[in-house]
Amino acid sequence: MSEPKINNDEIKRLKGLGFLNNKGTNCFSARVITVNGKLTANKLEKISKAAEKFGNGNVTFTSRQCVEVLGIPYEKIEAFLEFIKEEGLYTGGTGAKVRPITSCKGTVCQYGLLDSFKISEEIHKRFYEGWHNVDLPHKFKIGIGGCPNNCMKPNLNDIGIVGAFIPEYISEDCRGCKKCNIEKVCPVSAPKLVDKKIEIDRTKCINCGLCREKCNFDIFTQGKYGYKVFVGGRWGKKTTIGKPLNVIYTKEEEVYSLIEKILDFYRKNGESKERLESVIERIGFEKFEESLGITKNLH
Hints:
Layout: H1 8-16, E1 19-21, E2 27-32, H2 41-54, E3 59-61, E4 67-73, H3 77-85, E5 102-103, H4 116-129, E6 142-145, E7 159-168, H5 181-185, E8 191-194, E9 197-200, E10 222-231, E11 243-249, H6 252-269, H7 276-283, H8 285-291
Parallel strand pairs: 5-6, 6-7
Antiparallel strand pairs: 1-2, 2-4, 3-4, 7-10, 8-9, 10-11
């Protein structure tokens, strides 16, 4: 005898809690939230035991770096929640809200220009948890990248934050080496020797930081670390690469303040089912920047 079908209202309610119905069954996938995809060994062990005890023994990893435990029968959902709660784990990550924050491993990566773990954990606390009860026009995604390698594709999120290095140098100290290491190492050919002095085309520079400490005569040892912010990215049936704001921030708290301004703008100006990219397109990028208080390039 087949199990009674679960009604659509109950399926919708459970989806809001992070349980997605497995097609054609009374079983669900539980979306367990992680902070930037990083899990302690104890949490990972707890998820593994939960998959065996309540699910079908399998787990998958989502594009938002969450963990889904597959095949949990409807009647075991509450017991599952209580079980993972023992290790401080919970489900969610659905709906027209700020979605789980994604992050690369820039904190420990040789190319990392920012502490991506620290920043993503703070954003998770302030905006995934802090804005959890705030309904938005549509889902809202935030991604963190440690450098312009863009391993986690932060510029395909509604807000993408990328580590940046703003090189500073004294051109007069350049000795005009025939084989300039700065020219050689730059992936976008931004530095050029002009009249035997190095110059950087700032319109080409992607702030990757590869020029740091590469000069034989140490004229590239100085510089500022910062945060390049992209807005309006998305992927799926419609894909848009986010556009960089006309400023590179050099203080972490400025980034958090900016995120709050963008979310507040989106909440007030977005129409139902409209992603941030569409709001910016409708209003205009310059007016969008003006609403954030961005009037000039600080790079």
